[in-house]
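Hey team,

Sharing the Translocating chain-associated membrane protein 1-like 1 run so nobody has to redo it. Sequence (215 residues) first:
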Amino acid sequence: FYFIFQLSYWVHCYPELYFQKVKRDEMSDRIQYATLGVIAVSAIYLLNLNRVGICLLTLHYLSESLYHVARIVEYLDKDDNGSKGIHLAASGMFVLVRLGSIILSVLTFWYGLALSDNQVINIAEGNFNTQAVRLGVLASICAIQAYFMWHFITEQLQQMREQNALSAASRPKSKIEKKPVKKTKKEEKREDDDLPEVDQNTKKTLRSRTAAKAK
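Structure output:
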């Protein structure tokens, strides 16, 4: 009953995209996430991996619940007093859950179920404990955890870039005042030589008047 409830939850995520009017750039990630949940829960239910499936799903939901709590605190805490600490705790919890899921899967499928005497597929009894099935399930779980970690790392890098861009935009730009450059006598003489004779004479008289006034 628990896994049927989980399967119905992941299936309902598809029509929820329409009712929530999710943006197109976010839709692909959410569809991939929901599809991954449907495949994982269906495989656990069909292969009769109830105990290890409940443990893995519980670890995953603990990490997700802490992440959503951090988002709620970030929305309510406008002064940004405690949201950074909760986000840091959620990120650490996410990494620990991924590592714990891999360790639990290796101990279960590589060591625990390999010691069982009944390693023959029996559909009537719900026994799929063979080496091929164990290795396939273990590889799938490791691939899912790697996908979650890759998505987590890319999201963290994107947030860091956005924060750096915002901090760079908020910095006040320093205004550099340009001081007027005084022309030397040689440059003034060159400018006078380029002018016609009438303009040269008028410019010389103006300079002599300004010099006399300054005295």
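The chain is about 75% helix and 0% strand.

Ping me if you want the raw files.
A.
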